[in-house]
Amino acid sequence: MKLPDGPQTPALVQMFQWIFSPMSFMENCTKRYGDFVTLRFDPQYSPFIFVSNPQALQQILTSDTKDFAAPGSINKILIPFVGQYSLLTLDAEAHQRQRQLLLPPFHGERMRTYGQAISNVTEQIITQLQIDKPFSARTVTQAITLRVILQAVFGLYEGPRAQQLEQLLRNMLEHSTSLLFVVLLYFPVLQRDLGPLTPWKSFVRVREQVDQLLYAEIRERREHPDPSRTDILSLLMAARDEEGQPMTDEELRDQLITLLTAGHETTATALAWALYWVHKLPSVRKKLLEELDSLGDNPDPSTIFKLPYLNAVCCETLRIYPVAMLSMPREVKTPVSLCGHELEPGTFLFGSIYLIHQREDLYPQPKQFKPERFLERQFSPYEFIPFGGGARRCIGLAFAQFEMKVALATILSRWELALVDNGEVRPKRRGLGTASDRPIQLVVKGERTVKPRTLASIPG
Q1: 445, 453 in Cβ contact below 8 A?
Q2: Which neighbouring-strand residues pair with 434?
């Protein structure tokens, strides 16, 4: 089998290029080798093929599972973080079972019941900021999204345990989003306890403290069931699979960790980027504020969710610098032809979300932030793919989009913000995803006082 072309540098060199400068590494590879690039990261695995062709990605994500399947061997690197029963680490029938159990709480309509909570939490966080004192957008948006996901998962969650869990999750994420932690994940041999001050020992200690709080909450819920509760944990505990079996405590713990971390970290990054672009480009901010102001006071969150220009701004934010760089991997299970490439079983494929979003033929001037793209054209699920695709598409997609729109609308409608520095900010790796290469600094100039306008009065 002749694999697609790719760099011939040693595997360790390619691995460190991927870890330390993934965006430039991918862009350089696709410029030289095209839409299919063969990379060699680890001698114990077959080569990886990064795919940035939408038609090929559609074939990979929609073909029968006998052709392409999720390889558990690769996903297992996430077990130390989210556990062996997480939706992110399971494959085949086990993944399908857990996904079916998780789907009801994440139905789009159910998620919108959290609209008022998202708005309230956003107000609570923003009103704590001081006028004209710079703040980090990422710190504030993470405070918002972490508190929102805690309320969504546990309901009205207050008291010492809630405060302790919120702080521990912040600590856990500080460990897991460092470059050193990424190196530890990719090189499991380094995951050793060499003393209380070593990075791995520190991470494990925080993880154990989080586990204690989660298991205590699960135990109390089992001892004192309340069928009237509609938070995510209560719904998961009540869920049954096709054989009538509920989730075990371990399964619940792993899904909770996944929801509490992945369910807020990515949205926080996207929301920080949105604030950057809206305040960097006056024309975008003006048009978005006109749309928001047309709704009057206290608009319904479901109405906010449907605003076309707000949707375009959020989509363009997720396009230009997607938080997830790659789709979940697939392994070729039977000999298959993919856009002229004959692939043999055992070949690993990754859809490059970042590279697809940077394609000039899909997104002219891809480095420019232009929300109008999403008003002028409908992109397919394989051309715009910030949440992955197929059977392993992010289960929290509806919740993340809703939260991003309501939080952004709440901030922009009620407060006057400005960038401290209008200089360019670029993406870099943050853990297994991306974030800005330097803090996005904003200031609150004051509250907005706006006379509501009607949609008809807004210039076209």
Answers
A1: no
A2: 429
Mean pLDDT of the chain: 89
pLDDT of residue 319: 98
Residue partners of 127: CB distance under 8 A and separation at least 6: none
At residue 434, the pLDDT reads: 94
What's the domain count of the chain? 1
**Any domain includes 167:** yes
Under a CB-based contact definition with an 8 Å cutoff, are residues 289 and 354 in contact?
A: no
Would you say residue 391 lies in a domain? yes
Using alpha carbons only, give the angle 61, 66, 72 rounded to the nearest 5 degrees: 75
- Concatenate the DSSP letters of all residues of 403-444 into one string: HHHHHHHHHHHHEEEEES--S---EEEETTEEEESS--EEEE
Comparing C-alpha atoms, which of 271, 275, 301, 278 is closest to residue 371?
A: 278
In this structure, is residue 6 part of a structural domain?
A: no
CB-based burial label for 367 (10 Å; 0-12, 13-18, 19+): exposed
Range of the domain at 186: 11-457
Spans of the chain, pLDDT less than 70: 1, 43-45, 64-65, 71-73, 108-109, 111, 156-157, 196-197, 450-460
Domain of residue 222, CATH code: 1.10.630.10
Cα(325)–Cα(388) distance, integer angstroms: 9
pTM over 0.85: yes
